[in-house]
Design a protein that fits this description.
224 residues, alpha+beta, Jelly Rolls, Arc Repressor Mutant, subunit A, 4-stranded antiparallel β-sheet, globular, DNA-binding
Length: 224
DNA sequence: TCATTAAGCGTTG
DNA sequence: CAACGCTTAATGA
């Protein structure tokens, strides 16, 4: 069980709840720690919790037909996800891997469904989040053919700083260039070259083991 | 042909 | 010790 202060820190959506809703959410959440490289779940597992990243970085990954690991998305500190599988009561469709030491907040399914039934603020948050993801998904349809490597990387990185998915995201993110490459579906070399180009343009700063975003808006639109 | 990648390895923080 | 940068051989559009 977590404290109210802690819930406010890790879950920006909790700020908008009524006192009763907030208390219900607080009692329904537990935290779990995962070491770097650990699997949170494998494809096909039942993970009946709605999930928040209290601290750390996760990737959602899958296996291609030829057996190669394909990274589909990254979720960093204070991102919340998994409402699809919890609502539909399905098995997970993808692997979840901690990219560095990570603490997860797990909200049990009953609590999630109660908030879904009872809280206007919670539903407003969910609709906003789903809408944001849908917009991103539609943008992906043209993404492959229309954009070069630096533009694709800019899109993917900007996604980790989305203000709807992460309220007031920190401009700094610890992530290796290799993982950025995996996240963008490109090699480490290409990721490095693309990052250098974007740094020259003043959109971000490269650090050892991480990056700092200087201009998230231009980054999200880069190349169009 | 040209661009890109995986793999290996020396360097760096 | 993990992240980074560079070289090289393989790959493939």
């Amino acid at each position: 069980m977590i404290t109210g202060d802690h819930l406010r820190r890790i879950a920006f959506w909790s700020h908008d709840l009524t006192d009763a809703e907030f208390e219900r959410a607080r009692r329904g959440i537990v935290e779990k720690s995962y070491a770097k490289g650990a699997y949170v779940c494998h494809r096909g597992d039942r993970l009946d919790s709605w999930t928040g990243v209290a601290e750390g970085l996760l990737k959602i990954a899958s296996m291609s037909r030829s057996g190669k690991a394909v990274t589909l998305a990254g979720i960093r500190t204070h991102g919340w996800f998994g409402e699809g599988t919890v609502l539909k009561h399905e098995a997970r469709q993808y692997d979840l891997v901690a990219l560095r030491d990570t603490r997860l907040a797990l909200m049990d399914r009953a609590t999630f469904l109660w908030l879904f039934e009872n809280s206007v603020a919670f539903n407003r948050f969910l609709v906003g989040q789903l809408n944001e993801r849908l917009g991103q998904f539609i943008a992906f349809v043209e993404y492959d053919r229309m954009l070069d490597a630096p533009a694709r990387l800019a899109r993917n990185v900007a996604w980790l700083f989305n203000p709807v998915l992460y309220r007031n995201p920190s401009p700094h993110l610890e992530i290796s260039q290799e993982e950025i490459g995996l996240l963008c579906g490109m090699s480490r070399q290409m990721a490095n070259k693309s990052l250098q180009l974007l740094e020259q343009k003043g959109l971000l700063r490269i650090e050892h083991g991480g990056i700092t975003i200087l201009d998230p808006e231009r980054l999200a639109r880069y190349g169009t």
